Structures are given as C-alpha cells and as structure tokens.
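Inputs:
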Amino acid sequence: MFGEQQRFMLFLIAPAALLMLLFQVLPIVIGANASFRDWALYNPKKIWVGFSHYYAVLSDPAFLYTVLPNTFLFMILSVAGALVAGLALALLLNRPFRGQKLVQTILLVPLMVAPVVAAIMIRWMFNDQFGIVNTVLEAIGLEGQPWLVQRWSAFGIILLTDIWLWTPWFTLLLLAGLQSLPKEPFEAAAIDGTTTWRVFRFLTLPMLRPVIVVCVVIRAIDAFRTFDIVWTLTGGGPGRSTELFSLYAYVHAFLNLDLGRGSAAAIIGGLIILVIGVVLYRLVDRIAKA
Amino acid sequence: MKQLTKLAVATTVALWAAAGSASAQVTELRIGYQPSPIQDNSIAMFEAWGAKNGVKIVKVPNSYGVYVEKMTASLTSNSDQYDVIWHNDDWGQTWAHLLEPMDDVEANKFASKWSMSPIVFGNDKGQNTVVPMGQTFSVFFYRSDLVKPEEVPKTLDELVTVSKKLQADGKVKFGYVAGASMNNSWFTWFWSMWGNNCDVLLPPYERDNKKLAAAGWKSGMTEPCMQKNVEYWWDAINTHKIVPRGMPAYDRNEANAVFMAGDAAFTVADSLWWGTFNDPAKSKIVGKVAATRFPLGPDRAKPFAWDDIWGWAIPKSISPERKKKAKEMLNAMMLDKEGQKKLFKATGAPPPNTEFWAEIAAEDAFMKLLKESVLDSPDKVRGAYYFPQWPAVHKAFNDTVTKAVTGKREDIAKVLAEGAPLVSKAAQ
C-alpha cells in the first residue's frame, strides 16, 4: 500500500500525530460532545440536549453586546499597540549604538515574565491606595484614580499589560526581519538623499510587510483567546464590563460548573476564530504573492 | 517434587497474605486543601495524630481560585487523589452526593448543631458529609485605639457619622474598608443587606430550597431594602467618601492591607483574620483591634449574627480502609483540645469542638466576645445558599450590585431591575 519512503515518513510523523490526536483532537471532540449534553461538572447526567446550549449562548445579551465587542476591541487594539511599539523598538535596535546588546536583552524581559505574575504586579501598581501610579500622580499634584472600578480605565490597564507583555515578541521578529532585508535599496536611497520618513514609508515598510502580516495573524489568533491577565486584573469586572470570550466560557464551565454551556461557548469561539484565521491567512497569501 | 510444590504453594499464600495486609494497612493520608491560617493549623493536628499513629500526612495545596472546579472534577472522576479535602458550606449541596457520610464520626456530636444542619451538608438520605474545621464567620472589626466601645456604630447611619468625624480629626484616611469584588460580597454587600432585612433571594434569610422554589426563586434585587442598601454604599463611596473609591474592585487581601496599614477605622472580615491583624510582621495596628456586632440598617432593629463553618470531607470513591483511617484522624482532631486551642490562638476562628468554647472564652476576651455576639446568638444568618447553582447566583448578584454602585446614582433602581431576572434565572 505504501512504499518504503512513505512508510518511513509516516513512521517519522507518527509520534507527533499521536500526541496531537491525544492532547488536541481528543479534548476538542470530548468538549464538542459535552456541548450537546446536560453536563454539569458536579453531576454529569450527559443527557442529549441538542443545540440548546448553543442557543442559550447566542441569545445571551451579555455574550452578544458585551463579550464579543470587548473581545474584538481587545484583539484589534492589543495587536495594533504591540505592533507599533514593537516596530518602533525594532527600528531603534536596528541601528548600531553602544550597549545595543544590553538594551536588546533588557527589552526582552517582559517575554520572560509569566502573564499571571505580570498581571498581579500591574494590579498592585494601579491600586488606588498603594499603587505607584497614583503615588506619582499625587506627587505632581494630580488626583489619584480608582482605575479598576471604571470600565474604560480597567480595559485600558488590561490593554497596557498585554501590549507590555507582547511588544518584545514583535520587536524580536521584526528586528530579525529588518536585518534580513537587502542593503542595496537603502544605499541607493541614501545616495539619492531620501528623507528617513520616505525610506521608512516606501522601502522598509513594504519590504517588511510579509513579516508584519505573519506576526499580526499569529498574535491576533492568540489575542482572541486571552484569559490569564484579564482574569487576574479584573475578573471581567467591574460587573461584566471587561469580560472577554475566554472568561465567558470559563465562568460557565468552571465557576457555574456547567461544562455543557461552557463547551458550547468555547466551540462558538473556536468557530469565530476559525473564520478570522481563514480571512487573515488569505490576506497573508495575497500579500506574499504581491 | 511434592516438597517443592508445597514450598511453592506456601510461598504464594504467604506473599498473598502479606500483600493483603499491606494494602489494608494505611500508612499515608493525602489532604487536599487551600493554604490559609485555619487550614494550616487544622492540618497541624492531623500531623500530630499521624506522628503518633505511624501515618504520614501528605499535604497537597490547591489554589483558592481554582479549588472548587478542580476538586469537583476530581470527585466526579472517582480519582483517589485525595483522602481528605477541605469543604465549605457554599459547596455543601454541590458535593453532598460525592462525599462519604460522616455520621459514624463519633466526635461530631460535639460540633455546632446550627452549622451542621442537613440543609447545608446533608445528602439526599439526610446523612451528614462533613467534620468541622472551625467556625468561619465575619465580624465587624474596629480600631479600639480610636473608638471607645460605647461609640462603636450601631447603625449604618452612625457608621457614616463616626467615620466622617474620625476622618475630619485626621485620625484615619477612611472610615470603612472591606472586600467587595466577586467572592468577597460578604464583607460589604451581604452583611449590610442582612442588617436591613434583605437578602439575595426571597423570603429573606430562608435557606430551605423547597420554600425558595415555592416562592419562584424570586430575587430580592428589586425590593426597596436592596435599593437602600446599594444607595448606602454609593453614597459612602461618592458622597460621604468614607470608603476608598477603588473598593468595589477590592478582594479581601487589598482591603486587609488598607486596614492593617492603619488607614481605616472599621472593616468586616472573617474572625480568623484576628491573628493576622495582630501579627507585628504584617500589621501596624497590633493590639489596637476589637470586634463587635454588625451595624444595622433602617429597616431592622434586632441584632443578627452570621455563623458558618469550614470543614473536612472524605471523597466517596476512596477505599474503605482509607475512609476508616481518615475518619479516625478527623475524630482525633475533634478531640484534640490543645491543638484546637492553638488553632484559635493563631487565627481567632472558634474551634470545631463546642465543648472547648467555654474554657477558651474564660481565658480569652476575643473568644468571649465571639461566643456572646455570634456563637450563642439566637438570630443567626447563613452566609450562602445550599443548591448547586449558588455560585452562578452569587456572580449574577455581585455583577449587578457592582454595576449599580459604580454607575450613576439615578440609575441604581434600573440596574437592579435589570439584574433581578438574571439572579432569579441563575437559581433555577
């Protein structure tokens, strides 16, 4: 049935395929099965309930008018913010200067911090009584703010934390991209006396575009399922005003102990991100071909 | 050959017998718990018993943030990961069918009758499923160096006036501070609600599920007493400024930090924080803290006390030998007078054996106060509801109240009306 070469190839991919099957495909199948059943974590009756969990999620005003808008807003702003900051840092680090390696290492520190640890740290930094942020504001004569009790300030802190955590990742990849660009067009532009802005706008950015797009696609998919920093910083609050999709699924599955409803929410989220992923991948393909 | 056969048979029988007795002999018990002063001190009694009885106590700490879901998954999967687990009244009915009945733990007869009610910990056959670890209720703490006992607020209005006076005199930055975010509702929203004849579900203070069902799981969110309660906290934050503006987002650690820094005159916290408030390594108010009954709202004149327990439970799925040994250990813990005195001294939580209460109260003023104002009180409130959907009800309540308190004052009634069906639906 298979030739020697095919058998050898199958043998090589078998361990990875088996692991993927056991730890990715199987849990998804079990989760999908739970989403069609009355599956309370404390009393799993596992009775077939059809699409009732899906209907409950898709007709939940909190999911439609708070959770989904929050998730998309977070995805767009966090990716855009980290991309801009990462690109700026990559451009700075692409020029030789004294201590460049040291600065490069220091800038990578956030990548080494666990998101939960970073979120706890930021929560205390923005504490209205003991936080460094209010201390500085009060020192310069401004009033300290209760940052975590208002929707947009709390949302802003979540974004800030995420951007801080992910900027080094963008920096690292974009810097690698910048260093792999051919030197000749830049030398020609320098001979022509082109301004720095025009070099960036018409040379660097178009040549770096494939790298940028790949980074954005990977990060956008990842941002959609962000959980840890939001759960630690605000728990989705005040009220439910900063709740994202992953918190919605978690609360149903593990706080309300309704695994069926939580799984349905997770499957719906998975389908949404699948559509976004396909659109983004097509975009990458088009840009790469261009 | 015959001799060889006999030898082989004898060896097999001996090995089988040895293996059988080894499996019956339990030499290790695994405790699933959440590190906290009361649990650490209770486990110290297990370890003392284990040292005497040749049983190794293996402590398996779990994060509070994921404790219920993790332990529920462990219980429903029939794993034998734990022999004894931390149990709480909030999950009394969620886990009742998954836990070993404890009616044969003889020393349970010394536990508080109120706390061991079948409504809370009974399974569908009416069997009890817990052995108490200690009484875990909150009290109204105040700074005894700033407020004389006769000046302590008796009403919510007095809490405002006394707080404002202390703030105006420059004694403290805030009058009151406490946790208020999800899973910290007790320390702000709940106690003031109970102190005003109000509750999450109607009728107020009712915990019998049949009666709650008969009332249609109606939420108390739209009752006038609830609106007064929420408006009280809105005013305390925005108008009177007696509490930090960030308080609706505080958990108990953040609130305790403010109180222990000496920045607030009053707080509500579990009595088991008494030890931490008086720990010089953590607190600036050592020796300056006292406790009393909760201030009351305008709709209630009679004092009330809130009394619950934390406990230990045994998963149904473990082997009979392990269950037996675990019960022996829990029985011994219930009778360990010295250990329980140490537990109280280290935490301020009244120990599980009621027989020791009078003796401890005679030696310790704080216990005397807890005994008079809470443990012996005829008007008690239970801190949770006892049906599996309680976490969902609690979250719907907290989300609604937080939204109302952090929004505009004129929108409070509207927000509570919007939240009422969500609370009610979550209960069904």
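The radius of gyration of chain A is 23 Å. Flag for discussion at group meeting.
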